[in-house]
Every structure is written in structure tokens, then in C-alpha cells.
Amino acid sequence: MCNDNVIRRFAGVFILLSVALGFLVSPNFFYFTAFVGFNLLQSSFTNFCPLEKILGRFGLFGCRASGASAR
């Protein structure tokens, strides 16, 4: 499990970056903003977060993959 602040930081950076790219490069980047928002919404209902699994696989920020034992 990851610290919730780590997930919020990544989501905030992704959203700000995709909004900036949407205005500066192509409006198609707004689809990425919607994708991040959708993932945040669904994770609030299901407690499943794809970013948490990805960070756990890479061992970043104290996250660990589901089912991994604490060391």
C-alpha cells in the first residue's frame, strides 16, 4: 500500500501537466486529464488504484505490490 499523499501528488502532477499540454500542444491531452479523474473516482469506490500497483512493482516511495510481504 502507498501513502495516500504519494498518489495525490502523482495525480496532481499528471492533471496539471495534461491541462497545460492541452492548452499549449493539443486539445487531445484533455482526454488524459479525464482518464486520471476517472481513475481517481473509481478508486474511491473500489479501493483499486492502478498507479499504486505500478509504484509497488517499482518499489517507489515505500509502496509495495499487493500480496508482497513487509520486510
Automatic annotation (TrEMBL):
UniProtKB keywords: Membrane, Transmembrane, Transmembrane helix
The organism's place on the tree of life at top rank: Bacteria
Cited Gene3D superfamilies: 6.10.140.1340
Organism: Gemmatimonas phototrophica
Protein name: Inner membrane protein YgaP-like transmembrane domain-containing protein
Membrane-spanning segments: 12-38
Inner membrane protein YgaP-like transmembrane domain segment(s): 4-56
